[in-house]
Amino acid sequence: MSVSGRGTRKNGKNRGRKRFGLVAVLATILVLVIVAGWYLLAGRVPEPAPPTPPGPTPPAAQPADCPDVQVISVPGTWESNVGDDPHNPTANPASLMLNVTRPLQERFSPQRADVYTVPYVAQFSNPVALPPDGQESYNNSRAAGTAATIDLIERRHAECPLTTYLLTGFSQGAVIAGDVAARIGAGDGPVSPDLVLGVGVIADGRRDPAAAPTIGPPVAGVGAELSLAGLKLPGITMTGVRPGGFGALADRAVQICAPSDGICDAPAEALKVGNWLSSASRLTEYYNNPIHAMYNTFVVDGNGTTATEWIANWAADKIDEAPAPAHE
Q1: Could you confirm whether 292 is annotated as catalytic?
Q2: Fewer CB under 10 Å: which end of the chain, C or N?
Q3: In whole angstroms, what is the distance from residue 164 CA to residue 72 CA?
């Protein structure tokens, strides 16, 4: 074989390697662009809004059509939509929170307690579904629900400065209600903490045992967002503990969580290397476990009271004890 023949073959191999390297670089860039776009489209958890400046001195009376108490219920994932009727929600007839709101509507007049179910997207897209499942991301859904809840409180407070509030929610709705309550308790919410009668959350993904009492059987774990704190997938940000818990509302907040419900009873610090083995051992509890959908039958005391009955009774007691502002 001639030297020129060997040189030609060698040059061909070099050109092949260069083409392969160029293709690899371009493919890597394309993947990075796709992932970056994926994250941008899926959304991030928004930063808290700046504190609301103090309002004027409350008047002695408020308009005649203002309720004494504003009850705010935030449904869980797939239990609401943006066009739902907040006073007669029908987006999901099996919505867990209907077992709280309907008894309150039957017991109290709208003048005493206006029961409002926050309409929001209430979805949780699977970030690795191929093809995409068409759902809104958890981050975007949660942000929309939080904005809708705060907007309601701001509008109601502007019209009815003496109305007091009661917040409750389930699952994703519990995260939203809890986040809004935490902001109010920290002094940077849409109303003063002294206007909030109570906060009751069921299966809160940010459940912190130190933040408020847990009603029912002992629960060893924490909310999934605490368990997986710092984990970020497209559209899913595990935000960890609420700094300061419920703040000034800690003495008026209650939590309900069923043992082995992975949303609110996940192993603490599951991503910590030393906890991998113990965390993995709990995965069998969550496999094919329907407990997250069974709070309407989950008993929390010796009288046979279910989770939803307990929250409804607790809310009714708060409304009974609430002040009755004068009306103009």
Answers
A1: yes
A2: N
A3: 11
